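One-letter codes give the sequence; the fold follows as tokens. An example follows:
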Amino acid sequence: QVEFVESGGGLVQPGGSVRLSCVASGFIFDDYYMGWYRQAPGKEREAVAGIKWNGLNTYYAESVKGRFTISRDNAKNTVSLQMNNMKPEDTAVYYCNAGYDRPVYDQDWGQGTQVTVSS
């Protein structure tokens, strides 16, 4: 059974930072790219960051380049997202999934973690 458990969200001021974590299970973690996605109210879910199975290549949406950093720990089946210099438009529920841009387990999303950027 595939499962994703996201954590680390909360309320952050503009310009602030937050770190998200996701623990994945139910598949061979280090066989897959991993990605972070987000869904803002009234908008479709979008991919924001991805990382190759070996951690050597990373990918970012233009809107977050230079501010977000994705990383992974294959020994712990964990993928993280460090978010710096946050903006109100980063407010969304953040999810992880296998794959980047196109989630592999599109029927098995976790509960996500809410990030709200506001003063």
User: Anything to note?
Assistant: The mean pLDDT is 97. The radius of gyration is 13 Å. Strands lie at 3-7, 10-12, 18-25, 34-39, 46-51, 58-60, 68-73, 78-83, 92-98, 113-117.
